[in-house]
Structure formats: structure tokens, C-alpha cells
Design a protein that fits this description.
about 250 residues; alpha/beta; Rossmann fold; eight-stranded mixed sheet; about 40% helix; binds S-adenosylmethionine
């Protein structure tokens, strides 16, 4: 899982720059109250400095700030960092080389970005910038079980060619464990999404690919449709996305 460089990094930055102005309404999860509150809950009582790593438009960081944390953000895409910096200081920078001194943060939080990252480099950087009593909160959308895993991975690879890895909850926990992080608390929840909306706000994709993603959900295998509660209302396709949120500490 190498760090993105050259054309792949350029593509990633361009993709998020295009999506930035409408990112907050591009899917329900971005602003979902329950989901953001679950992150706040796991972050715990405000205890100093928090880094919103790969902050995007800063939805998680804004909530942390309102909760009493002193928040800083980092994002590879300058437009995203600029959008966040309307709410808290945010810099352009890579998760794989976090531009802060050792022990700078009491909390690092990273929502829905691990699939793009060189996980080994990112986790070793997080361990470096965390204070000794600090914690790392990470979240991702993952399959519900082995039943939907293969089909969901296919959908994601059509939707997002810049994916470095498709994670199950087990994969995520294994990577964290290998890097010396121990899971202290877990939350799981679902957020209902409109696939048509998700595609409407993915302007980087061709109409053909957008149509393909919608069909892959609408015409998914029956077991997938049952788990994701796929349904069509007035031609619009909806399904549940499964989220995992982990609070970890670094043990080395
Ligand atoms: C799906 S968005 C999630 C944004 C935010 N974490 C949230 O939950 O609202 C992924 C973000 O990660 C950023 N990103 C992707 N790869 C990155 C990297 N290697 N280093 C820093 N940021 C990265 C993108 O620019 C984008 O803003």
C-alpha cells in the first residue's frame, strides 16, 4: 500500500477539489448527527489538542471544537483544508507524513479515509504525534459480514478507482493491532444513503460509471439487498451503510 505520489496523488487532490463545494450534502453520513455524536462520544471528555486527520470540510473537527477540544486539521487537498480552516486551523499535508512534532496531540481522529492511505506510514505517524495518554479514533464504512463483503468491495472499486484497500472491520482491527494500537471501545451504526444522491455528487465519474454503481446496488444479489435493506422509492435507490468506529490507544 504505497503512499500516493505523482499522477495518482494529483488525481486524488483534483477529485476532492471538485467535490469540495458540495461535499457536505454529497451523502447523509457526512453530516449525520448520530454518526458525528458517536465520534464525539469515543473521543471522550475534551482533554486538549485534537487533530482531525484528512479533515475534508471539517465536519468532525467542527463538532469536536464545539465540544471543547482545540482542533487542528490536515488534508492532502488544499481546497478541503481551506474549507476546514473557516472553522479551525487546517493545513495542506499528507497523512503519511503528519506535519507536527512528536507528542503534539491528545486525540487524533480520522473518519472515512483509511481506504486511501498507506496505513503503515500513517499509523506510525499517528503514534509519533500522540501524547502518551492520547487516543486515536478511526472510523470507516465496512461490510456487515462475509455475506455482503465481496459485492460491496466490487461496488467500491467501480466507484473509487483511487482506493488502496477495501477494509472489513476485521482488517481494520488487524492493521491497528499490527501497528501497536489496542482497541479500547467500539461503536457500530448504520446510516441510510441515497445511491442516486451519492452519484449526483460524484462529478468526477462518467455518467456510465454512475449508472453502473446505481445498478450494482439496485440489482445486487438478494442476500446483499436484504442486509443493506435496499429499496427503490420513486426511482431513487436507497440502502444502509454499516459503520465501525474504534477508539484505540498506542501501546507500541
Ligand atoms: C472521504 S473524505 C473524508 C473527509 C473527512 N474525514 C470527513 O469524514 O468528513 C477523505 C478526505 O481525505 C483526504 N485524503 C485522502 N488521502 C489523503 C492523504 N494521503 N493525506 C491526507 N489527506 C488525504 C481527501 O482529500 C479527503 O478530504
Amino acid at each position: 500500500m504505497p503512499v500516493k505520489k505523482g499522477p495518482a496523488l494529483r488525481k486524488l487532490k483534483e477529485q476532492f477539489a471538485i467535490r469540495c463545494p458540495e461535499f457536505d450534502i454529497s451523502a447523509n453520513w457526512v453530516s449525520d448527527r448520530k454518526l458525528i455524536n458517536a465520534h464525539l462520544d469515543l473521543a471522550g471528555k475534551p482533554a486538549g489538542k485534537a487533530l482531525d486527520l484528512c479533515c475534508g470540510t471539517g465536519r468532525v473537527g467542527r463538532a469536536l471544537k464545539r465540544g471543547g477540544w482545540e482542533v487542528l486539521g490536515v488534508d492532502a487537498c488544499q481546497e478541503m483544508a481551506r474549507a476546514s480552516s473557516r472553522f479551525f486551523p487546517a493545513l495542506g499535508g499528507m497523512a503519511e507524513s503528519i506535519p507536527f512534532k512528536p507528542g503534539s496531540f491528545d486525540l487524533v481522529i480520522c473518519r472515512q479515509t483509511f481506504q486511501f492511505l498507506d496505513i503503515k506510514k500513517t499509523l506510525s505517524g499517528i503514534a509519533r504525534v500522540l501524547s502518551s495518554a492520547g487516543s486515536f479514533v478511526v472510523s470507516l464504512t465496512v461490510p456487515f459480514s462475509g455475506i455482503d463483503s465481496e459485492w460491496l468491495s466490487k461496488i467500491h472499486s467501480v466507484k473509487q478507482p483511487l482506493l488502496l484497500k477495501f477494509y472489513t472491520a476485521g482488517d481494520l482491527e488487524n492493521e491497528l493491532k499490527k501497528a501497536g494500537f489496542r482497541v479500547r471501545e467500539k461503536r457500530g451504526l448504520t446510516v441510510r444513503e441515497s445511491i442516486d444522491r451519492w452519484m449526483k455528487y460524484s462529478p468526477e465519474l462518467s455518467p456510465k460509471i454512475r449508472g453502473k454503481v446505481i445498478s450494482m446496488v439496485k440489482d445486487a444479489p438478494a442476500a446483499y439487498k436484504k442486509l443493506h435493506r435496499v429499496n427503490v422509492v420513486k426511482g431513487e435507490v436507497f440502502e444502509d451503510w454499516n459503520w465501525i468506529i474504534l477508539k484505540t490507544i498506542y501501546k507500541g
